[in-house]
Design a protein that fits this description.
Length: 329
Amino acid sequence: MSAPFTRTTLTREAIVVGSGVAGLSTAVRLLEAGFKVRIVTRERTPNTTSDIAAAVWYPFRCGPPDRALLWSHRTFRALRDLAGDAATGVTMVPGIDLHEVEDAPDPWWKEAVDSLRRADALELPPGYASGHAFTAPVVAMPVYLKWLESRVDALGGVIEARGVGSLEALLLEASLVVNCTGLAARELVKDDDLHPIRGQVVRVAAGHADRFVQAGGARSPLAYVIPRSDCTVLGGTEDVGVWDLEVDPAAADAILARCRKLVPELEDAEVLSHAVGLRPGRSEVRLETVRHSGGIIVHNYGHGGGGVTLSWGCADEVCRRSAAEIPRP
């Protein structure tokens, strides 16, 4: 019987598993740091969960708050910088976070944005007593994911289409493996804390809303309006533990009704498409280094509704952890 494989010298070869926004962002940071990177993935854009994201920078169902604040702050700055390049699909858009009660406390993530103010009464739609106004990055995901892939390619990275049955087995191919598999990590690493949070959206024609709107609370279901260059995304749902990927017509009608109430100008907006995605919910993001005899596995999954919002911050931390374990020669 052969002895177990043991790598005596760690190399700067890395495999990133998954090519959603977490995997692509992580691969870019590792390439920029001098790692030789391959992305291994079953699906690529436009067939990833990240393609369905709305997507506005907004920490939602992700934690722990202290680390999420740091990650979201770093991502805010990175996306703000990318907004200067139209090819990225990132734009800075004004918006409002609505509350059902007066004098709602400032959000825990307020230090992550450039500025945050109390909304004026005239800015509030009927049914909401207060709000916070701020400007945040909005991302046209199909454009952005393609841009990230092109960035990986320009830096010398490679994307391979194949499944993965074991992260440890990949350590035979590279010294560093980064797990960015999202909800698939539930089976891949047997993580029962990981669960789906089903989100359904309606995409309507662009040009009918000039700000993003986030709403919902104890008395009202989740509602959001995200204006992008390619469409305006209306949402949504947050169905915890639900795996169903079929579009629910009743939910779509309810989303349209809620969003038209928030932004009456949407009444005449043409409906373009419907989509359902499963957010990778977890009690907190798993960003952790695990050392093996053959190398290092860094887990980066469980971002909940904050995949885009935490992406660059988490990628930065993965890169720092990896570089500390495998420094430049």
